[in-house]
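ESCALATION

Customer reports they have been waiting on this structure for their group meeting. Please prioritize. Original submission:
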Amino acid sequence: MSVSLTDAAARHINRYLGRRGKGVGVRLGVKTTGCSGLAYKIEFADEVAPEDIVFENQGVKILVDPKSLPYIDGTELDFAREGLNEGFKFNNPKERDRCGCGESFRV
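Update from on-call: job pushed to the front of the queue and completed.
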């Protein structure tokens, strides 16, 4: 089981954590919502919770709760700029369908 980062995502996370002056990494997970059933969630984490599963990639800790891991196992987190927009992209091999608005997915 694993979750990984692209170079761009690792650079962005390290830069942001440096500006914040605190934090141990990012916490990834899923929540039930939207037309297709699941949505990704991401937040900067200040500490590791006892139940977190920790992956380390390119010097960044990726924290995942055990309930979310089956849905995002194998996912690569990317950071992309497209025109004026920028943000994280989840490249999830388990994703089978995405809703029209792009906010939720199904495995």
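Sent to customer with the following note: Helices lie at 7-20, 69-72.
Escalation resolved.
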